[in-house]
Amino acid sequence: MEMPDPETLMDRFAAAGYIAETELATVLVLMHRLGRPLLVEGEAGVGKTEIARTLATVEDRRLIRLQCYEGLDTNAAVYEWNYSRQLLSIQLQEAGAAQESLDIFAPEFLLERPLLQSIRQPEPPVLLIDEIDRADEAFEAYLLELLSDFQVTIPELGTLSARSLPTVILTSNGSRDLSDALRRRCLYHYLDYPDHARELAIVEARLPGISHRLADQVTRVVQILRGRNLAKSPGIAEMLDWCSALMAASVDSLPADGELLAATRGCVLKNREDFDAVGADELADIVRQIA
Predict the structure, then answer these.
(1) Tens digits of residue pLDDT in 121-136
(2) How many angstroms separate the CA atoms of 253 and 156, rounded?
(3) Residue 49 and residue 131: Cα distance in Å, rounded?
(4) Residue 202: alpha-carbon gap to chain centroid
(5) Are the beta carbons of 245 and 264 closer than 8 angstroms?
(6) Which of 92, 113, 127, 225 could form a disulfide with 118 if both were Cys (CB 3.0 to 4.6 A apart)?
(7) Does residue 153 sit in helix, strand or coil?
(8) 151-154/158-161 β-pairing
(9) Long-range contact list for 201-206, CB < 8 A, 24+ apart?
């Protein structure tokens, strides 16, 4: 599948509701042409995961997602053996109800997990390795063979090479340093919070029924909140949730009174410390400032 030029890719992303900058579109084109994975770093909530989802949508490809977490191992990420089926086959053989020769490590007993699935597809999928920084260093090292050679080694079967080459996007929130070996195998892009104009475009693309004034006000307030020393800065998803809640309340602009703000601020403030730090009255003051 041939990747379009960056401008065309940006248009396709926009049609799917993702407003991409030229730099991101260019690195996605390079990733495709060079056959390299892409590592996207940035704060939580800036839209890293959505890049892979949108790319799969605009290219009409299957999205295979591996969500990383502490303690992730090969059984959950790559493969495991179907032990119950192996045991049943052994019992049937012992009872004389099955063929005499039995290889319990034949491919039919193999359960494919996301990484193995991604290289065994007849058509190249988009593989999303989400929040790789949450996995430990041992698992990160295991990834290197896949990212370099697009193959997986299974001791009982040998090396399984890719039937088609997946497009690989890794995301990281920067909670720990990733190895130089991993970074060398990837192209790199840092995704920051969008500026006001792009964030406003995102809101209007994702919520086409929203009034321009409401979208403009919400994005301005959220960007002010990101400048505060909050425990969790509101991301794009939180901003869209707040817009949706306000639309459900049938308002076309942010009210300067605290009642509706108090009822909806839980869309953007996600823990007790932030809830206490930014009360409804303070939100009302911010709304009056931007009016």
Answers:
(1) 999 999 999 999 999 9
(2) 63
(3) 9
(4) 17
(5) yes
(6) 127
(7) strand
(8) antiparallel
(9) 201/19, 202/17, 202/18, 202/19, 202/236, 202/240, 203/239, 203/240, 203/243, 205/14, 205/17, 205/18, 205/19, 206/17, 206/240
